[in-house]
């Protein structure tokens, strides 16, 4: 989280660039509301539309882990592998049953119509075509209205949708949908750069990055806003 980067840009072009812990930032953004009791400034919406209780069949996973070792010609009884099915089942459970915590905390905004851009959020996901890992760097931008999202929520939302079998283009769209729903605005942009093990460790065996994006509202309609957002992401990579 420490390397997440946050940019707040006012419509007058003044920029504020900070690498602070995201949890500290809503206060900085709110200025005068620092120190107010959380109940005064927080707003928590109704349940998440995408909230689904995903559970693994843990016993079945243990069996499958054992089966997998046999299928690839290993001896599940040899010392190094004795506990492997359990570790493997634990990992699947951790991945699938990920809990993003509260993603809906909102803060009252003192200045609306600001561009907020959060970038450098690295999330882990699994490609649904090959069940191989992909690392995705997520950047999110939106224009603030009456309420602003608590800044740690961007990372939670990104992880929430990464913790399932995924394709990169759907990850972009699901993050955009959720930010849009919670912040109550169409003006949302998401860019994801992914490194896929199914490309670098099998098949063509070439390292490379895949970039995909979703641009909605003013990010789609206004060239300048879109370029400003892309420029902020670019700056944060340096
Ligand atoms: Zn793949």
What features would you describe in this structure?
The chain is α+β, with helices and mostly antiparallel strands and 238 residues long. The chain folds into two domains: 5-47 and 103-236, GTP cyclohydrolase I, C-terminal domain/NADPH-dependent 7-cyano-7-deazaguanine reductase, N-terminal domain (GTP Cyclohydrolase I, domain 2, 2-Layer Sandwich), CATH 3.30.1130; 58-96, GTP cyclohydrolase I, N-terminal domain (GTP Cyclohydrolase I, Chain A, domain 1, Orthogonal Bundle), CATH 1.10.286.10. Helices cover 36% and strands 25% of the residues. It has nine helices and ten strands. It has helices at 25-30, 38-41, 58-71, 84-96, 152-162, 168-183, 197-200, 218-221, 223-236, and strands at residues 5-9, 15-18, 42-44, 105-108, 115-127, 133-143, 147-149, 165-166, 188-196, 210-215. Strands 1, 2, 5, 6, 8, 9 and 10 form a seven-stranded mixed sheet that branches. A hairpin with a 5-residue loop joins strand 5 and strand 6. Helix 3 (58-71) crosses helix 4 and helix 5 (152-162) crosses helix 6. The longest helix has 16 residues, at 168-183. 32% of the residues are buried. Residues 1-5 and 7-50 have low confidence and may be disordered. Bound molecules: zinc ion. Zinc ion (ZN) binds at residues 127, 129-130, 132, 196, 198.
In short:
The protein is an alpha+beta fold and 238 residues long. Helices cover 36% and strands 25% of the residues.
What key attributes describe this structure?
238 residues; alpha+beta; GTP Cyclohydrolase I, domain 2; GTP Cyclohydrolase I, Chain A, domain 1; seven-stranded mixed beta sheet; three-stranded antiparallel beta sheet; 10 strands; 36% helix; elongated; disordered N terminus; binds zinc ion
